[in-house]
Backbone:
């Protein structure tokens, strides 16, 4: 009998807690998001299709999360798998790193900086198969 009363009290306590939590969580959901969760304006400028000035290669930046994770695609002219893509900002400098992971692209990567004045991505391309690095830049393709 004593055990049954203890279980009943515990169930009543849990029911009360669930009602309390239900009343608190919707209020928390209406709170404005923190500044850290908002997209950075500098990252927004990275979105678009970018053509490498030599070779006809295309980088497509579809989305950049506030934390710097980039949703990107790469074409030469067929799609090449992007293994990793990140953006970062230090002061006024916005950088993009794109690593390719596909046949003939085992870790080839771009390390780029956004040139706001000329609306370009400028940097270096490491071609992993040949072990060579090249200076490159991309211009924005107009839609």
Residues:
């Amino acid at each position: 009998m004593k055990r049954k009363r203890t279980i009943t009290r515990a169930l009543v306590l849990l029911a009360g807690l669930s009602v309390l939590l239900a009343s608190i969580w919707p209020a928390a959901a209406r709170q404005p998001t923190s500044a850290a969760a908002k997209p950075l304006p500098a990252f927004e400028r990275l979105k678009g299709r970018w053509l490498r000035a030599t070779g006809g290669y295309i980088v497509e930046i579809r989305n950049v999360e506030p934390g710097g994770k980039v949703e990107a695609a790469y074409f030469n002219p067929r799609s090449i798998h992007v293994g990793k893509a990140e953006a970062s900002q230090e002061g006024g400098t916005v950088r993009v790193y794109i690593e390719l992971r596909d046949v003939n692209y085992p870790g080839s990567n771009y390390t780029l900086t956004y040139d706001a004045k000329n609306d370009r991505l400028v940097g270096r391309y490491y071609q992993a198969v040949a072990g060579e690095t090249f200076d490159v830049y991309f211009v924005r393709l107009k839609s």
Residues 10-35 have pLDDT under 50 and may be disordered.
